[in-house]
Amino acid sequence: MDDLFPDTINKSEHGVTWWAGNWECRNWNGYFQSRESGRGNWCFQVPWFSNDNLTCSVYVIDANGQPQTRDLIQIDQENRITIQGRKYSRDFWNH
């Protein structure tokens, strides 16, 4: 279900959720996360990897509530990304 008035949602605020088509989305400490049909793990979105596959970009939400990319997120040997000092396995990020 789409939000009735999606432009009225302050997407730059931590914890706020909204719908984009079949995807439930949220701002988690400035990082964009989503999950299909509002079920399952909240996942970070990884649009790009570096050439050496040691870092990647993830979507963050700027002060205007718009998605932007943040580079140089570390990827360890177990394919975990590190966000705010915590490691997230492949179950918690999408490419």
Can you walk through the features of this model?
- With 95 residues, this protein is an all-beta fold.
- Helices cover 0% and strands 46% of the residues.
- The chain contains no helices and ten strands.
- The protein has strands at residues 17-20, 23-28, 31-36, 43-45, 48-49, 55-61, 67-74, 81-83, 86-88, 93-94.
- The strands form three sheets. It has a five-stranded mixed β-sheet, with no helix packed on it. A three-stranded antiparallel β-sheet has the order 5-6-7, with no helix packed on it.
- A hairpin with a 2-residue loop joins strand 1 and strand 2 (23-28).
- It is globular and about 40 Å long.
Question: What is the helix fraction of residues, given as a range?
Answer: under 10%
Give the SSE string: EEEEEEEEEE
Question: Strand tally, please?
Answer: 10
Cα-based radius of gyration, to the nearest Å: 14 Å
Q: Name the overall outline.
A: globular
How do the strands and helices of this protein lay out in sequence?
Blueprint lengths: L16 E4 L2 E6 L2 E6 L6 E3 L2 E2 L5 E7 L5 E8 L6 E3 L2 E3 L4 E2 L1
Parallel strand pairs: 4-10
Antiparallel strand pairs: 1-2, 2-3, 3-4, 5-6, 6-7, 8-9
Task: Describe what is shown at a glance.
This protein has 95 residues and is an all-beta fold. It is built from no helices and ten strands.
Keywords:
95 residues, mainly beta, five-stranded mixed beta sheet, globular
